[in-house]
Design a protein that fits this description.
about 120 residues; 6-stranded mixed sheet; 4-stranded antiparallel sheet; about 45% strand
Amino acid sequence: EVQLVESGGGVVQPGGSLRLSCAASGFIFGDYPMSWVRQAPGKGPEWVSEISSNSHFRNYADSVKGRFAISRDNARNTLFLQMASLRPEDSAVYFCARGNRFNWPSGGRGQGTQVTVSS
């Protein structure tokens, strides 16, 4: 069973930074691309970023490009999202998902961690 547990969310002022983590279990983490997805209240899920299984390929939504950085540690079965220059519109529940930007909906996802950007 795919299990993904996110952590690291919180309340931060505009311009601030946060680092999200996602602990994976129940599958061979290093065999799969992984994504971060976010969902704001009243809106549908928005894909944020993806990383290939070997970290050689990384991709970002235009809305976060240049501010967010995705990474992974396959030895520790952990996915990360370093977020900087945060804006109020980045406020959402962030969850990690198994898969790339196209197939993540069917790969399994965690419960998410809340990120609130507010002064």
